């Protein structure tokens, strides 16, 4: 989608989020095998990132939280990328947590960096791009 422009166009990205957010939720929900009553909260990344895309996700999550009377938890977008590595595949009942320290590489649109994590939510920047991100 973004290849024709040579990089991410924020308005195009936001429109894609609008187009795909419901189908992606439907697919994830179908594969999860749970009910809304099984949830204790709704989490959403709020930034940093492309404002339009983040607004789509935040407002969608706010609506879901309101409709299902669940608390809404804001998560830093870049930490969301880091912690995605802790998610389990559908076939996994559990997996041992990686032992700290951990080195994490994030390449996401406008953000590219390498961090050391000595513990959860504790980061030391090891390096980042100085101009455009590798994800652009």
Structural commentary:
The radius of gyration is 17 Å and the shape is globular. Helix 1 (10-32) packs parallel to helix 2. The protein is built from three helices and five strands. A three-stranded antiparallel beta sheet has the order 3-4-5, covered by helices on one side. Strands 1-2 form a two-stranded parallel ribbon. It has helices at 10-32, 51-67, 77-83, and strands at 42-47, 72-76, 102-108, 111-119, 122-128. The chain is α+β, with helices and mostly antiparallel strands. The mean pLDDT is 88.
Strand-residue fraction?
A: 25-35%
Average pLDDT, all residues: 88
The tally of beta strands, per DSSP, is 5
Morphology: globular
How many separate helices?
3
SSE string: HEHEHEEE
Can you give the helix content as a percent range? 25-40%
Major sheet size, sense and barrel closure: 3 strands, antiparallel
Question: How is the largest sheet built, in terms of strand order?
Answer: 3-4-5
Distance between the termini: 12 Å
Q: What oligomeric assembly is this protein in?
A: single chain
Radius of gyration: 17 Å
Low-confidence stretches: none
| Class from secondary-structure proportions | alpha+beta
């Amino acid at each position: 989608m973004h290849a024709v422009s040579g990089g991410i166009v924020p308005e195009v990205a936001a429109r894609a989020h609008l187009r795909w957010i419901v189908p992606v939720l439907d697919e994830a929900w179908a594969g999860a095998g749970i009910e809304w009553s099984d949830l204790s909260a709704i989490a959403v990344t709020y930034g940093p990132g492309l404002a339009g895309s983040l607004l789509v996700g935040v407002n969608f999550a706010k609506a879901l939280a309101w409709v299902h009377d669940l608390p809404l938890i804001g998560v830093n977008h870049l930490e969301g990328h880091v912690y995605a590595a802790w998610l389990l595949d559908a076939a996994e009942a559990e997996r041992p947590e990686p032992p700290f320290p951990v080195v994490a590489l994030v390449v996401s649109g406008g953000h590219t960096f390498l961090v050391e994590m000595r513990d959860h939510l504790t980061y030391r920047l090891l390096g980042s791009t100085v101009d455009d991100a590798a994800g652009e």
